[in-house]
Amino acid sequence: MIYLLLSIASSSIIFVVFKLFSRFKINTLHAIVVNYITASTLGFLLYQGGVAASSIPQQDWFFNAVALGFLFILIFNLMALTTQRSGLSVVSVATKMSVVIPILFGILYYKESLGIFKVSGIIIALIAVYLASVKSKDGIPFKKTTLILPALVFLGSGIIDISIKYIEGKYLNTGDLPIFLTSVFGTAGAVGFLIIGSQMLRKRFTFDAKNILAGICLGIPNYGSMYFLVKALRHDTFDSSTIFTINNVGIVMISTLIGITVFTEKLQLKNWIGIALAVISIILVSLS
């Protein structure tokens, strides 16, 4: 349970860092690239196994890690594009509602148990995520012309969660997790550098040291969120569908409360209802 709580805490810190980006006018892309390099370096420093760097490409999980790294940077760019065209609320809901994908995967592929408490908790959790995430009075302003972008964010975020669970169960040994995450984040960082390189060639790049500091501040909790989530998935206390539900709903709940207390955000009645439902869903899923 402690790993799950640490994953939720790490992801909630990521929310705080992202909120500070706008306040300090951080270049998000540049900070994201530094974040991946920071997370990759952290994984390398924490690795205590006997795998030499030259033999990493020969590991069974290596190409899965590379693919996951490409997916990370791709989904980030899709999220940025969706935010520009449809707004932050659309991205928030699409990302968080994607929890339904790993939940269904765990139930269908791993034959995880179902019961009245779990089913009720999952349904309430999805309602809670929507209500807590939508800050506008009119709900989500979906447009048919831009629906494909949030749909891709929804699908991509869900695939990332499925991949993490699948790779963890099939390929990773006990001590491989830090070096696996190093490969994932390192790939995402390398792709990000190529994007920045193209900006430099087009003379659209401006160096600012605060972007590096922001990326470091983001990279540490980003590594922690992934590391602790995988550790939680390895534990026998809960199955994966329960862990993903509690993790996702917990992040939404804590992030919303941080928004109130730290950033003095004004919540509507439906946001408070979402928080209350989040607590109920966690209790029901845990009881299952």
Question: What features would you describe in this structure?
Answer:
There is one protein chain. By secondary structure, the chain is mainly α. Helix content is 76%, strand content 0%. It has one domain (2-287). The chain is built from eleven helices and no strands. Helix 2 (28-46) runs antiparallel to helix 8 (177-201) and helix 6 (116-133) runs parallel beside helix 10 (240-261). The protein is globular, with a radius of gyration of 19 Å. It starts with a helix and ends with a helix. The model has no long low-confidence stretch (mean pLDDT 88).
For the secondary structure, the number of strands is: 0
What's the number of structural domains? Answer: 1
- Largest sheet descriptor: none
Morphology = globular
Integer average pLDDT: 88
Q: Assembly state here?
A: single chain
Concise account of the structure shown:
The chain has helices at 2-23, 28-46, 62-86, 88-97, 100-109, 116-133, 148-170, 177-201, 209-234, 240-261, 269-287. The chain is an all-alpha fold.
